[in-house]
Design brief:
By secondary structure, the chain is mainly alpha-helical. The chain is 72% helix and 3% strand. The chain contains 5 helices and 2 strands, in the order ααββααα. The chain is globular.
Length: 127
């Protein structure tokens, strides 16, 4: 189910939502030039981490891994990425959207149980 096209589409929307949330959070926590810097830098850093550290041959991704990591580390990166996005939404006071987002992330991972099991069995390429 983790590689189901609908579930992958939901995950893509969650990823985009996280990046938008990070940018909006960066915009709201500061003023002046720093506001612009944070609104651009936070989502950029998050996207670089998301796209760089991956498990080789992950069927839910391209299968390529610029920096190969274990499945456990990748799962921690993903959960942190989504948890911080939820935190950002809650901290801005948009609680309804934050709850919808958070519950959708939870549902996505429940439906992706097969991918989680697969990830937990994956070691880095050098193991």
């Amino acid at each position: 189910m983790g590689s189901n096209p609908i579930n992958l589409g939901v995950r893509l929307l969650l990823e985009i939502g996280a990046l938008v949330g990070y940018g909006y959070w960066g915009w709201t926590v500061s003023d002046g030039v720093l506001r612009y810097l944070l609104a651009l830098a936070i989502p950029l850093v998050a996207a670089v981490v998301w796209g760089t550290f991956a498990v080789l041959e992950d069927p839910s991704r391209s299968g390529k891994a610029p920096v190969p990591v274990s499945g456990l580390l990748r799962l921690i990166i993903e959960l942190t990425f989504f948890a911080l996005a939820s935190y950002a939404l809650f901290s801005m006071g948009i609680k309804t959207i934050a709850w919808i987002y958070t519950l959708t992330v939870i549902a996505h991972y429940i439906l992706s149980y097969d991918r989680i099991i697969w990830l937990l069995g994956q070691k880095t390429y050098s193991d």
